[in-house]
Amino acid sequence: MNTKRNGRRKFLKGSVALAGLAAVRPLSGQTQAGGETEPLSAGLVRAVGERSRFETKRRTWTGSGRVTSSLTPLQDLKGIITPSSLHFERHHANVPDIDPRQHRLLIHGFVDRPLIFTVEDLERLPSVSRIHFVECSGNSANARRGSGTAQGTHGMTSCSEWTGVPLALLLREAGVQPQGKWLVAEGAEAVKMTRSIPIEKAMDDIIVAYGQNGEALRPEQGYPLRLVNPGWEGNTNIKWLRQIKVVDQPYMTRDETSKYSDLMPDGKARQFTFAMDPKSVITSPSGGQQLRGAGFHEITGIAWSGRGAVRRVEVSTDGGATWKDAELQTPVLRMAHTRFRMPWTWDGRETVLQSRCTDEQGGYQPTLAEMLRVRGNAYNYHASFIQAWKINPDGSVLNALV
What residue numbers bound the domain in which 93 lies? Predict the structure, then answer.
């Protein structure tokens, strides 16, 4: 009995010692592959959490002469949420530096009671948190123009959890008059980005957001206030929101006439093509990546639609000759990115990977040829077609559309 008790006591003492070592060693250094340790950077407690120095995923920047947008590294993301620091951005002027204590939101026009809200006022009101994607209407237009990675072809879409006040609540408080059929929303940046939005959408699901992924909006994402307009083209999600005017008709602003309209083959242009069409892209394997060899690989990517939830994603591993259903990873949310996955055994020969999305309305992602028959080659916005990645025998992956 004593022998057993003494043995148990020694085991417990040893366990405590090991636990102590486990707690101490991560603070003094980290073990490398060769068994050596390297000191951590100075300051174990940091004001802002940082990724490991071994994680190098970054946004890429675009624009001629000055930075006007950045692209999300879709090929490096794991689920459906885009970290705030990797969310794409698009703006037509510099990012304003706004003191939230001085910022105001004005609601006026055809309303019974014009209202002015501070950010603090809005934070006191009943709030919602919803997961939605935001996509620039020019996203994927470069898929045929030399972009070689998923980030380059589709990187102007990101998906976050947004927190704020339903716009419908604010409009009901103001009292929309019968002649109020549209809104004109305006930002506080230098160019005063302005878009007209139908009152039906405003009363449905638009959020006046002050939060993103559990924290305040980042400055590039509209700090301290922005609209989140689920499923609709990104430029209607007005950032640095400063006023909403209720009007009786669209205002035909610069950014809905000379910009963000769709030129058609007959020379006419479509306006107010708000909703983003069904779309998907394989992010692994994808352009710029390298397969290590034949054998098992998981094909994964994201799909989304501005018209509702994704209902089906099909994947082809033989250039479109045959298609198989991919698994949709839960949760599958409306107007949000949906992760899809499919196991694949590569035989080491050249092939082409593709994916296509179908949403809950029955809308589907067309082939490039199908889109061109309707739109022609003059498109700049609302380009939705099947992206193809070519797998070479050496495992390199290229954009098959270039």
Answer: 60-267
